[in-house]
Amino acid sequence: MLVHVSLSGVNPTDWKARDRIASPTSHVDPTGIAARRPRSRTRWITPHHDGVGVIVAIGTRVPAHRLGERVWMWQAQWGRDSGTAAEYVTLPVQHAVPLPQDVGDDLAAGLGIPAMTAHYCLFADGPLDPTEHVLVHGGAGAVGHFAIELARHAGAQVATTVSSPEKAAIAEAAGADLVVNYNEDDVAGALVRWAPNGVTRILEVDLPSNIELDATVASPGASVQVYAHPARPTVMPWRLLEANLRLEFMLVYTISDAAKRRAVAGVANALEAGALTSLPVTKFALSEVADAHRAVRGNLLGKALIDVQGT
């Protein structure tokens, strides 16, 4: 299908892919296409995996009712050179998901990679229930934001860590039961008081910095889902073995197709229920994609979006 793009979402993997192409010795390949291209060949890529738009043309085997649908898109550039940072993008049918009428473009454009990552990390070990305590590191980031909301939608209790009062406000607005500023508070003490029996699932964005804390506050048999590449070597504490903790790594681009379908369905269900909200948004013009990448790399607060149809 062909989608007329309204907004394109920017993720950390977009600027990382840009850096990888500029420095081909990097081992990180978030686009999934490096191995198929000779390094001597010039690369022309339209970036970005996420976005929102309207279906304007369909293939012969796509149901006719999908023409004209407003959709959110995911992994548009996975394994391909064409992403959502363009007026139009062609997509496999399953990568364009119908949107409820009351879901705004800002929220829809920012779903994709972060919401699917959050869903997988939360539910890879099965459903959540109201007795469970979940710890989400980085609750003001895109993955953390959706993880808080998806966990709350499932009925679980959620704590999160942040680094500033501004980020605390974002996490609180998402519905976190406990927000701890790790630059000011006793994080371990606050979490132990909040969940005296330990947290059952942890979403980890900075394993080297948090592994001792995770080991301290986790319940026996808890799982730690790591969705960001560790920036430095990590020493594993004895408590990981003692408590039989499970340390799992994930990259949303390479999880199974079945897991992707479950994540898309879970995000769509939460949208229908009105359980997801947008982060604060900063918009860039289509000519400012490089500026948007630099802003995200510089830890922009909230979500960067490309206003494809704007001037």
From TrEMBL:
Alphabetized SUPFAM superfamilies for the sequence: GroES-like (SSF50129), NAD(P)-binding Rossmann-fold domains (SSF51735)
Domain (Enoyl reductase (ER)): residue spans on this chain: 9-306
InterPro entries to which the protein is assigned, alphabetical: ADH-like_C, ADH-like_N, ER, GroES-like_sf, NAD(P)-bd_dom_sf, Zinc-ADH_QOR/CCCR
Pfam families membership: ADH_N (PF08240), ADH_zinc_N (PF00107)
Gene3D superfamilies in alphabetical order: Medium-chain alcohol dehydrogenases, catalytic domain, NAD(P)-binding Rossmann-like Domain
E.C. number(s) listed in UniProt: 1.6.5.5
SMART domains: PKS_ER (SM00829)
Record-level Gene Ontology MF annotations: quinone reductase (NADPH) activity
Name under which the protein is recorded: NADPH2:quinone reductase
Native source organism of the sequence: Nocardioides thalensis
